[in-house]
Each structure stands twice: as structure tokens, then as C-alpha cells.
Amino acid sequence: xxxxxxxxxxxxxxxxxxxxxxxxxxxxxxxxxxxxxxxxxxxxxxxxxxxxxxxxxxxxxxxxxxxxxxxxxxxxxxxxxxxxxxxxxxxxxxxxxxxxxxxxxxxxxxxxxxxxxxxxxxxxxxxxxxxxxxxxxxxxxxxxxxxxxxxxxxxxxxxxxxxxxxxxxxxxxxxxxxxxxxxxxxxxx
Amino acid sequence: xxxxxxxxxxxxxxxxxxxxxxxxxxxxxxxxxxxxxxxxxxxxxxxxxxxxxxxxxxxxxxxxxxxxxxxxxxxx
Lengths: 189, 76
What we know:
The complex is a heterodimer of chains A (189) and B (76). Chain A is mostly helical and 189 residues long. Helix content of chain A is 69%, strand content 0%. A two-stranded antiparallel sheet of chain B has the order 1-2.
């Protein structure tokens, strides 16, 4: 079955957004291109499987997530060896004094529901995820965006649970700093 | 008798005085694994005396909600 030209145009129009999330997940432009091409190809081959009762973007992101997991599997060896090389500074030592107390007062973020409804907040969050160092960002995305369980991530990448928790700990602390500075400190709520 | 700073509760040894750094560690690990009851109790005790860690805990909760909202946002 040949896909109608209109459908092809719609797919092509969604390429940039697919590429954005593929890059955010894989942190490798070439792998991201591959995953997006595979996604669009799958959608072109089976236009009839798009039910039309959901949005085209929702359906494509669903396919993309599977293709991204395939890419991660295919490149797992390289991914597991890049582990701690791009880690950045250790936030724990900046946040805590030697006696284990916070160096600074922690802020009340107020009513989160207000922020969560705002598209601007989503953009700040996305920018903060993008700023995470490579492996931290990848693992954070696997956990929070692909919604993989910790043991699945360890298995796919052949890393130990301790290693995973350390990396996610750092990613979450870094994300928190970024949200604090990019949103909550600015009084944007 | 358990050592100083520890209390036995239903067979678990609970640390009474964890630091903010340890509280942060437990709070964050709970996002990615099931944290043992003894550690959760230590955290609860710590929260009674530490406003900073209570606020940090709520920030982490907020981030969890934000991730869920973001997942929806990315495919809408």
C-alpha cells in the first residue's frame, strides 16, 4: 500500500521534534538520525496501523521510543564504557559541609501544580535535561522518559545498580539546581 | 544493647541521627529503588528536626510530578 502524499508531508513535518527527543535520549547525533529514520520508515510502511483516533505525534513518539531502545541495545557496549568520563563536578561536595549539613538554606518551591500547568516550565525542564552531562542525561531519560525500571537499565547497559544510582543521584541533583536557578529563583511562578 | 545513635525497632536497626547528606542520599535513591524500612524511618525522624531536608524532599516529589507531566507534554 502506498502512503498518500499528505500523510508523507505530515510525517516529514514531525521529523524535527522526533529528532530533538532522540538526541536528548541518545546524546549521539548519528544514532539519533538512525532511530528517527527507522521510526519514519516504519510509519511509512504501515500507514494503516495508525488508527487516527490518537494524534499522529503521539503514535510516532511511541514508535520512536521502541527504536531508541533498539539503538541503546545495539550500542550498549560503547554506552557502558563511557560511564563516568563526562561526569562533571560533584555537586554533593558543593551542597554539603564536611559535617554533612546543608551549606545553604533550601527553598520552598511553593505549589507545584501551578508550575506544572505552564508550557514555559516544560521548556525550562527540557533545557535542564539537555544540560545534563551525557551519560547522566541518557540514564535520566531512560528512567524518566522511556520509563525503564532500574534493573532493566542495568541489564541493557551492563552496569551495576550502585553505578546507576550514583549517576541518577547526580543527575537529579543537577536537574534540581537547574530548575532552582532557571525557574524558582526567578519568581516565574 | 544497640550501639550509640541506633535503636532497634521490630528487628530493624534504625539510625537516629543521620546527616542531611545521608537524608538526601536516601531521598534520591528512593526514586530508583525500594529503600529499606529502616532507612525510611531514619529519614522520617530526620525530617522532624530539619526544615531544609523537608523542603528538599518536597522538591524531589515535585520533580517526579514534573517528569510525569513532561512525558505527556512530549507526545501531545
